[in-house]
Each structure stands twice: as structure tokens, then as C-alpha cells.
Amino acid sequence: MADLLVEQTQEIIISKTFPTKPKLKSKPKTPLKTPESKYWSSFKSHQISNLISSIPSIDFSPISPHHFAAANSASLNLFSSHTLSPVSTISSSDVVTSCSFRCDGSLIAASDLSGLIRVFDVKTRTPLRRLRSHARPVRFVKYPLLDKLHLVSGGDDSVVKYWDVAGESVVLDLYGHRDYVRCGDSSPTDGEMFVTGSYDHTVKLWDVRVDNKESVIEVNHGNPVEDVIFLPSGGMVATAGGNSVKIWDLIGGGKMLYSMESHNKTVTSICVGKVGKESGEEALQYRILSVALDGYMKVFDYAKMKVTHSMRFPAPLMSIGFSLDCMTRVIGSSNGIIFSGRRKAKEDVGESKVGNFWALGSVEEPQRRALRPTYFRYFHRSQGEKPNEGDHLIMRQRKVKLAEHDKLLKKFRHKEALVSVLGGKNTENVVAVMDELVARRKLLKCVVNLDDEELSLLLGFLHKHSTMPRHSGLLTGLTRKVLEMRAEDIRASDALKGHIRNLKRSVDEEIRIQHSLQEIQGVISPLLRIAGRR
């Protein structure tokens, strides 16, 4: 009776077997994708490639549906932010350098290399005003955020001009920059204050109410300034120049708060983007988006002072824009390609239908019919339901699929299992089987019982993999034992002698490499010590 119980117990233990698995590889630590990275990656990429030259300026309309304009050669192209398709084209007499929508989205101003600024009606594309006073090319033009009657411009004549659009006249000529004025932005809180950046490395804050026509605050970026923007609070500005983006506190008198230097080449354009939902706490999470000639777009969280996302594009980038509804991101490149991205949202589905019934209130979702035993769907209910956080899951036990060598190990046919796995091409499985045989104390016995052909397979494997650092601890010792135990068989066979010669060459080559590495280490170690002291 006792013997019968022992046999049944052995059968139960033997039947519960697990496949031999190779040891886990040491994987490099890769950062997990953060929720913010997932947010920026959710913008579905789309290329607009039918343009002929670089895109120096992009601007979004401040009103829905937030069309965007892109300056391209001697034209101003308008695109839909929903379909990313062309809407209209406004022609100019010279190469357009900058564009800006008015706060109501009905007018757009464009500057060109001839020094002319023209104001167009967005719907009819009719030129309404011609503003000419700059002696050289105009590099930027900007409508103040809270003003419909004035414009700010700057150009290669180093003069900043404040325009009366209706009268086509200059209200103020602001002198102070000593080189090309390349960029500017208006304050989001005060329509009579704006900031400009120049190639003389300076950024100046202007107030048109000041009598002496001098700048209120001046800061030095340290490089030619390519772009400058106000941050949403109105008390800070961000400047781009060289390979850095710097943040300045205007309320604190122009104190630099942080310098981000994550780009490898010149930063050409920056803008403000918003992360999160349309309401709630996440709606206040603003980011600075920067693009550079190195082809990278960087997302900078200026509250935590760190880069939160990076994206690579196959061309030098010249301009960037982000829509106010946080749904569209557009980047202009130097080769005429616009890399646009549209984020998917549930609100996009049936948007036009909701607009038609706006006066009647929200559109109710269609109600599903109640389930009855006469419906086929009744018998498949709840099969697609996902578990909640507190639910206890009962997983169905899957049948373990065993490889050929695992089946042989289960039957204690050790030598056949070793030969079977040696005939395959998976190095990890061979080492795993050898580890299992070492644990069972059967590996050396298998080596003794191998015939010449099987021994040739083993020597060939040792020749290829015995010098690999991951497996050298096991395979080097096994090689030594094989040479001791099967020396006579190796001397009697020319094929086995050939494997031994190849194995010797591999070991000699590995020793030579190790000696070279030691010499290099001897040269580098003193240099590292000296660098550590500094």
C-alpha cells in the first residue's frame, strides 16, 4: 500500500513540469511613456507638401474653427485646422515673411521683403490697407491681442513701428535696437505693451504710453534673438536664440528665471501650447513648444523647469503654431513641408450635427433596446465587459506547450534532450538545458555518452559561444571537462581535431582582445581621475 502511494506521488510530481527557460537578459532602463508624452503623441501626423519654399511664419485664427495661415514664398496659404486641407491662397507682390490674425479673425496682416505690410480680408482675400514706411524688409508684424486698430512691426532697418491701420500711418517710431529686428509679440493683458527681439542680442519691452519713446525693460539673451513670446500670465516672456530658450521675469525687472539648452542647433521659433482637458485643473498646464534647425520639437514645462517631450522631424524646422482649442499643432520646415498634427477627440464626431441643433440644446444619444431572451445578444451579454479596479479576476489556466527537449527532459532522457537542443539554433535554450542538467547532475554523464557526431555538435557550439561574456562562466568550464574526458576520441577523429583548432583560435583572439582592452583602460583611467578632481 505504501509503495503504491509513493508511485502515485511520483507520477503527480512528474506530470507537473515546466518548460526550461533561459535566464533573463539584463535590459537597459528605458523611461516609461509618461501621460504627457502620450498626449503629444496622440496628434496624428499629416504632411502638407505641395508648397515650394520654406515656411517662416505660421499663425492660428483666434476664433473657431481656428484656421491657420502659413507664409510661403510670395503667397499666404490658409488651411483648415480640422481637415488640414487648403482653404484659400492670398497672393503678395514679394516674399511673405510674417503674418498675424486680428483678434476677431476677420483680418490678417502680412509683411514681405519689400518693406510693405498689407492687411487682407480673410473671407474675400481683398487687400484693405497698405502700410509702407520701413526702408528695409519687414521681418515681423503683429496685431495686439486686445486691439483691432493698431499693428506692431519690425524689420532690417532696426526700427520698431506702431501703426494706425485705419489711417495707414505710423503712430510711433521706436528706436533702440542696433541690428535687425526679427521678432515680437504683444502682451496678453495690455494692448499697449509689446516686446521685440533683435540680432543685437537684446529683447526690449515697449509701452506706447511712455513719452520718451524708450524701452521700459531691456534684457540680453546672449545670442541673436530669433523669436520672443509672452507667456499667458503676461508677467513673463520666453526668448529663443542660439541653441537656448530663456525665460525672463518682467515683473521682477527682467530677471532670468531659467535657460533651456536642449537643442543642438539654432532655435528658430517658439509658441505656447496647453496640455489637458478643456476645463478643470489640467486646463492651466501651459507648455513652451520650441523648434530648431536640428529637426527637433521640444516641449518644455516652465512650471517644473524641465523638458517633458521631444519629437524628431526629417528637416530643419522654421516655425511652429498651436491652436487655441488644443487640437491642432503645425510646424513649418525649411524645405516647404508643413508637419501638421490633429488630435482625435470625441467632440469631432458629429460636430456639425451638434451645431445645427445648438438652439435646441444638447443632442441626446440614441437609446439601446432592452435585452430580451429572444435576442441573440442576450446570450452574449457582459462578455466584453472590462474588470473594474476592485474586481477579483479568475484566470483560465492555459495549457503549457512543451518543446521537444522539454518533453525529453520530462521523460528523463537527458542525452537525447541535449542533442535535440544542440540541433536547434537557439543559444539561450541550449544554455538553459545545460543549466537544468547541471542541477540534475547529469551533464557530464551526457558528455561521456555522446558519439562522435553528437560530440561534433557540442564542440561546434562551444567554439561559437564559449567566449560570449554571458555564457562564458558555464561554457568555459564545460569545455575544459570535455577536453579531459574525451581526449582519446578527439585524437582519433580529424573532424573533432578541426573543431578543437577552431576553438583554440577563438580563445586566442579573445585573449588578444582582452589585453587590448586592458591597455586602453590603463590609458583612460588616469584621465578619468584628473577629470574627477576638476
Q: Report the C-alpha radius of gyration, rounded.
A: 36 Å
Which runs of at least 5 residues are low in confidence (pLDDT < 50)? 4-15, 347-363
Q: Categorize the overall geometry.
A: elongated
How far apart the termini lie comes to: 80 Å
What order do the strands of the largest sheet run in, or round the barrel if closed?
A: 1-28-27-26
Q: What is the beta-strand fraction? A: 25-35%
Protein name: U3 small nucleolar RNA-associated protein 15 homolog
Domain U3 small nucleolar RNA-associated protein 15 C-terminal: 386-527
GO cellular component, one term: nucleolus
Subcellular location: Nucleus, Nucleolus
Explain the overall architecture.
With 534 residues, the chain is α+β, with helices and mostly antiparallel strands. It has 11 helices and 28 strands. The strands form 7 sheets. It has a 4-stranded antiparallel β-sheet. Strands 2-3-4-5 form a 4-stranded antiparallel β-sheet, with no helix packed on it. The longest helix is centred in the C-terminal third of the chain and has 40 residues. It is found in: Nucleus, Nucleolus. This is U3 small nucleolar RNA-associated protein 15 homolog. Keywords: Nucleus, Repeat, rRNA processing, WD repeat.
